[in-house]
Design goal:
The chain has a single domain, classed as Protein Transport Mog1p, Chain A, CATH 3.40.1000. Helix content is 24%, strand content 33%.
Length: 196
């Protein structure tokens, strides 16, 4: 009987040492991201009373329709990041009776606050440049639809608002480096605005 146990043990060892590999669970991995060389070019549009520097690896698209309706202003456009499948939606308002400065600022804060339910925190970054332009960048961290929102204005005539969106449902951990990369672009763009 001990010979049978010994032979059985030998057979099991030989089977265990075969070349058939068992599959192991592997951790989630994300594709490698190739970031473009950061460079900027001047953006100007006849419909917009400002110019600013935008990244050379983006393109702009004028908004003709927004949710099947004509946008409220002629200077509504997207800054597209095709390599990241992302857009910055920009909307410009002339400050006047219909759109006073206080209501536009309140709207910007309201839009950013809508993400508080899912946000883990919100950082507000003050923007000021030498061209009479100041505002706030809202960096909203967490599983939110728009991780960056901003507004800039001269508080008298001009008001520009923007929001970063991805064109797909994203895992915030996988896009965090992209969000940081675009966030630095937003700071450069807003720092370069000149009102016409």
């Amino acid at each position: 009987m001990s010979v049978r146990v010994f032979l059985l043990a030998i057979v099991l060892i030989i089977c265990a040492c075969s070349k058939n590999e068992t599959s192991l669970l592997r951790p989630h991995q994300y594709p490698k991201i190739s970031y473009p060389q950061r460079s900027f070019t001047n953006y100007t549009n006849e419909e917009c009373p400002f110019n600013m520097n935008i990244p050379t690896y983006t393109f702009t698209e004028q908004k003709e329709y927004l949710f099947e309706e004509i946008p409220a202003g002629q200077c509504w456009f997207d800054i597209n990041y095709p390599q990241f499948n992302a857009k910055i939606h920009c909307s410009y308002y002339n400050i006047n009776r219909d759109h006073n400065f206080e209501s536009l600022v309140n709207d910007a804060f309201t839009m950013a606050s809508k993400h508080n339910i899912k946000a883990s925190f919100r950082e507000e970054i003050l923007i000021e440049n030498d061209n009479n332009c100041s505002g706030i960048i809202f960096h909203i961290n967490g599983p939110v639809a728009s991780p960056y929102q901003f507004f800039v204005s001269d508080s008298i005539n001009h008001f520009l608002r923007g929001s970063l969106y991805f064109n797909t449902q994203v895992n915030i951990d996988s896009v965090a480096p992209i969000v940081d990369f675009i966030g630095k672009d937003i700071e450069v763009m807003l720092g370069s605005i000149k009102w016409k």
